[in-house]
Amino acid sequence: MGWTEKSASEQGRAIERGELDPVELTQSYLDKIAAHPLRDRIYARVTPDRALAEAEAASRRAKLGQRLSPLDGVPISWKDLFDTAGIVTEAGAGLLQGRVPESDALVLQVATAMGLVCLGKTHMSELAFSGLGLNPVKKTPPCVNDPDAVSGGSSSGAAASVAFGLAAAAIGSDTGGSVRIPSAWNDLVGLKTTSGRLSLQGVVPLCKKFDTVGPLCRTVEDAALTLATLEGRKAADLRGVSLQGVRLAALQNVVLDEMEPEIAENYQAVLGQLAEAGVEIVPIEVPEIAGSLADSGVLYTVEAWAEWGEEITAQPDVMFPAIRERFEAGQGASGAEYLQAWQRLEQARAAYAKATRGFDAVITPSSPIFAPKTDKLLAQGEYYVRANLLSLRNTRVGNLMGLSSISLPTSLASCGILLNAGPMQEERLLRLAAGVEQVLRGQKA
To answer: Which GO terms describe its molecular function (predicted)?
Structure first.
């Protein structure tokens, strides 16, 4: 196995030991990207000059024993909605064709100051408003397990860049599942951070009340280190994790509906594995979730239309019709309907917090469906709408309830599980996820 196939954490440790040079590592990625047949479907643009300059600086620091973080010198990709100074940032949209920001997004500034190497910008769903990753306006990245299927969205190229070994990790955004769905369908770890934890300054918005920033990685350790690097701080300590005494609430209503049979069978097998490892699993129901999911149409589309309606009205034909129609759905709701939906959501959040009190996390399947075929989605119609809503249904619970959330891969390809914890509980969630990861990999936790 070459270095480009290893985790970001392993690469960082090898740089620390002097076994791996950041310049050689970065050049390996750049060469691999250039030669990859699917490169143009994954990367919107590669930034070799920036990457090599950052790698050279990391190499000098490593030789002097002055590394800035455990991931100093590790090359990663960035979803094309994070502003990059002097580099086109279009958020997958014809509406933003040729847009060149003057400065980096704040999280990119912090990551660069901590030594991460920017390989380039990855393709994504148009303006981040789809969980599928289908983008006929720009490019549609492939699923690593099925080249004829979408990779999940909206951080579609982000997931593909890691899954195909074209980046050590990737930074995406998650408004309704956009980090966790592509992670689940590409056998990665995807962390949704709590709203407000990471800065959205310089991040092209969709719905600012729900937009979050998060990493897509090979391992939970990678997710912990990447989160810390984005914040400029020390990572959560994952040593000595144990599942003894852990209590998980297994949500029963809504999230188990309409599951594909293999996913349902795999989910029950995962619960069995965890129970054998000493985890107490308690079925619970939170009826208010159904109402919140129904209200999410108003909550998301009204804010999205308020953000982009003027631009869409001026250039409607440059958008993929299925995405444009999602935005346009926000025109019809009244101010009263929007405020009432938020009032109901606050009540649902209180009910959820009460129902899940005393549990370490809530577990659900990441998605009830596998990655759909691209050709079938291109026909649009009812299948596209249904697939998009189903893909995001389970993950959206975490956004609506204001939670921290992580998707972990399982032994079944393109099938993940979700662990949801309270707001600003990422460190505790990462420790729990590390223990679950060990069990799913057949190790002892």
So the answer is: ligase activity; transferase activity
